[in-house]
Design brief:
CATH topology of the largest domain: Rossmann fold
Structural class: alpha/beta
CATH superfamily of the largest domain: Vaccinia Virus protein VP39
Number of helices: 12
Bound molecules: S-adenosylmethionine
Shape: elongated
CATH architecture of the largest domain: 3-Layer(aba) Sandwich
Order of helices and strands: EHEHEHEHEHEHHEEEHHHHH
Mean pLDDT: 93
Strand order of the largest sheet: 4-3-2-5-6-9-7
């Protein structure tokens, strides 16, 4: 059967693995599920057995046609389209769904992080996400300070979610097999972010500036971003935040990043008089 590599099509070969992914998330009969990329329906089959309703977004219209009619419309709603362009808030309103929903997907690897970022913008509508990712991306999401894979993506996801690694699968679990191993992760939306940062937009700008060049010290990365961040007197700012300027961003815990954000936001407010232009997070 034809597969489209460009769309990251690697289909689960064994229904037992599909069932294991669905069972790992402890679905309840009243749950509403958003499935990303149902493909040939490997996960959809088990999701539809356990949840009240599945909204499945698939970009490949040929696959949507293949799946059409397999389940009653009230059970599985197939949506032909690009998940990255989906306005989830509008979809849920149109469908009369108010409860936080459960997200599932064996994600197309090349756009998996873009999909996570897109969905995090709609975090208020989500309960959790159970997603399969390339193993290295799962590592980046879940890693802790001090690890090589700790960076912007880890901080973004851990700020909003509690993450857990479920299990890893070899390439042979898929048809056609990808070149990489895959890991299923569970991300549960936090009731409130992991740390209090005063201003989320500025927090994420700061994190991106700190990680601009991983091998440089935090002082040097901040120096390069003074105009963008509108901050001066970096040495004293770092001292007030209790941070050694020679450290590297990959050693900073969320709490330390939050403390640095607070000190910087306050320093900006006292020099510029107002902070009006600080906006939405740039996720
Ligand atoms: N769920 C199926 C399975 O596990 O066998 C298929 C998983 S396959 C890794 C990824 C699926 O996502 C494919 O069906 C692909 O066509 C679909 N896809 C790729 N890009 C997409 C996008 N931007 N929006 C929605 N679906 C997409």
């Amino acid at each position: 059967m034809r597969t489209r590599k460009r769309l990251g099509q690697h289909f689960l070969a064994d229904p037992r693995i599909a069932r294991r992914i669905v069972e790992a998330a402890d679905l309840r009969p009243e749950d509403i599920v958003l499935e990303i990329g149902p493909g040939r329906g490997a996960l959809t089959r088990f999701l539809s057995e356990r949840a009240a309703r599945v909204l499945a977004v698939e970009i490949d219209e040929a696959l949507v046609r293949q799946l059409a009619g397999r389940w009653p419309e009230g059970k599985v709603t197939l949506i032909a389209g690009d998940i990255l362009k989906l306005n989830l808030a509008e979809l849920l309103e149109r469908e009369g769904i108010s409860a936080p929903i459960r997200v599932f997907g064996n994600l197309p690897y090349h756009i998996a992080t873009a999909i996570l970022r897109h969905l995090l913008r709609f975090r208020a509508y989500l309960h959790d996400m159970t997603v399969m990712l390339q193993r290295e991306v799962a590592d980046r999401i879940l890693s802790l300070p001090g690890s090589k894979s700790y960076g912007y993506l880890s901080i973004l996801v851990q700020y909003y979610c509690e993450g857990q690694r479920l299990f890893t699968l070899p390439p042979s679990a898929f048809r056609p097999p990808p070149k990489v191993f895959s890991t299923v992760v569970h991300l549960r939306m936090r009731d409130r972010p992991a740390v209090d940062v005063l201003n989320e937009g500025f927090f994420f700008e700061l994190v991106s500036a700190l990680f601009a060049e991983r091998r440089k010290t935090i002082l040097n990365n901040l120096k390069r971003a003074t105009a963008r961040l509108r901050v001066n007197d970096l040495a004293s700012v770092l001292q007030r935040a209790g941070l050694d300027p020679r450290r590297r961003a990959e050693t900073l815990a969320l709490e330390e990043l939050a403390e640095l954000t607070k000190v910087l936001v306050q320093a900006r407010a006292s020099t510029s008089g107002d902070d009006a232009e600080l906006g939405e997070p740039t996720i």
